[in-house]
Design brief:
Blueprint lengths: L3 E4 L2 E4 L4 E7 L8 E7 L6 E6 L6 E3 L7 E6 L4 E6 L8 E8 L13 E2 L3 E6 L1
Parallel strand pairs: 2-11
Antiparallel strand pairs: 1-3, 3-8, 4-5, 4-9, 5-6, 7-8, 9-10, 9-11
Length: 124
């Protein structure tokens, strides 16, 4: 089992950047694929980006492709989401999630481990 703690959220203006971090407990972090999800008020939780165990495989939703970058440091048990050119539509609670597999999945139900979330608010 792994425990996840997100950080780095905040209030920014449109066009700004933020870097989210997710710290994971446990000695087998490298055996877990990771995902960043977000949930805006009144909307379903959606996958924003995902990364395989080695970092060689990544996925981005169409809404963030070219603006967000997911990365991981297995030595530090951390995964990151660099968010550039933020817009008010990016406002949401962002969650880090993991699954015990080398490969990510696009289905939110395939991630059994979740952090508590961090709020990102982008003002226009």
């Amino acid at each position: 089992q792994v425990q996840l703690v997100e950080s780095g959220g905040g209030l920014v203006q449109a066009g700004d950047s933020l870097r989210l971090s997710c710290a994971a407990s446990g000695r087998t972090f490298s055996a877990y694929a990771m995902g960043w999800f977000r949930q805006a008020p009144g909307k379903e939780r959606e996958l924003v980006a995902a990364i395989s165990w080695s970092g060689s495989g990544t996925y981005y939703s169409d809404s963030v492709k070219g603006r967000f970058t997911i990365s991981r440091d297995n030595a530090k048990n951390e995964v990151y989401l660099q968010m550039n050119s933020l817009t008010p539509e990016d406002t949401a609670v962002y969650y880090c999630a993991s699954r015990r597999s080398y490969y990510y999945h696009l289905d939110v139900g395939e991630y059994p481990y979740w952090g508590q979330g961090t709020q990102v608010t982008v003002s226009s």
